Amino acid sequence: MLATRMVMSVSNEVPNLVELTLSGRQPQTEGLISSIVASVSPYTMVPEWGVRFTVKQALRVVTEGIPGIMMECGVWRGGCSLAMLLAQRAVLGRVERPVYLLDSFEGLPAAQEADGPLATAWQQNSTSERFLDNCRAGTDEVRSVLEGFGFVPGDYKIVPGWFDQTIPAIRRELGDTRISLLRLDADWYESTRICLEYLAPTVCESGVVIIDDYYAWDGCARAVHEHLAQHDTPYRIRSLPDFVGAYFVKKPHRDQAESLDDGVQVDGWFHCSIESREYYIELQRTTLWLEKQRAAWERLAEERSAASEELRKYISEQEIGKTWVEQQRATWQNATIELQRTIKELQSRIVQLETALAPPGLDSDDGPGPS
What we know:
The chain is an alpha/beta fold. It contains 11 helices and 7 strands.
């Protein structure tokens, strides 16, 4: 859990076109990943690249039949664990691999000298908006999030407590059960060391270990290097884009044609330099940015279209109103003409009545004359 990571956020709605082109994966998969990333974003502080990679690996171990449960050590509000569950349900219609969520649920332990001065400074700055109560979240909150997405106990297992107490017990409880995806978000040296010591041996071949804080804190990097050196393992530590984390795939030796998750082949027939990989990553970012802008323009066009429709309705209503006014005016004009005709008829009738009521022999036009 790293509250200090500031990375460029990419759109949750568009596929990574460069990656699709290089890897041959289908856009539908990228659409699914983007949907899951968007769904879990309120419940994780992991940058988008890190969440996307977690989803991809969950899909990989399921679709390739790599055996074992999934586990996250250091879950905060449960976002990445939720992503593992959603990925399984999306492709299988159910949760086939239970997801274990391990956390103290009391925040991080105190940073030690091995974790580096930045770790100590971060933990002492409790007023920072990125402190997030020392990365604290409760079990009830996490359970509520999972239940809100329709998951039930059995799909997941929440294990509260400090790692030096819970992880050895979980290792014994698992017995022969393997781990296909292990995500470590333990921050400090001692926590990461314990996770690797007890859990890395249970990760099956071709399973993946994700180290969230490898680039964030010195202690995490120390623990990873120490573990790999002590066990004389040839696992390659690989970086996620923007250095939001690292990972290694558990293999006894390098494959003849091993490929990185970013789609760039590193075997003999297609070797890309670091500069080329950085170019492709930058191209991915640019493509996603352009797609985001296109989506923004499409939304703007939809809004303009809706506004035009409202305007047309308004004009239509005004035209209807104008027609009604014209009709009323014509009606009043006709009524006025009719009234004027009626008045003339009444005036003519009055004259007739006056004539009929005048005394006989009296000419109203003759004045008095001599007798």
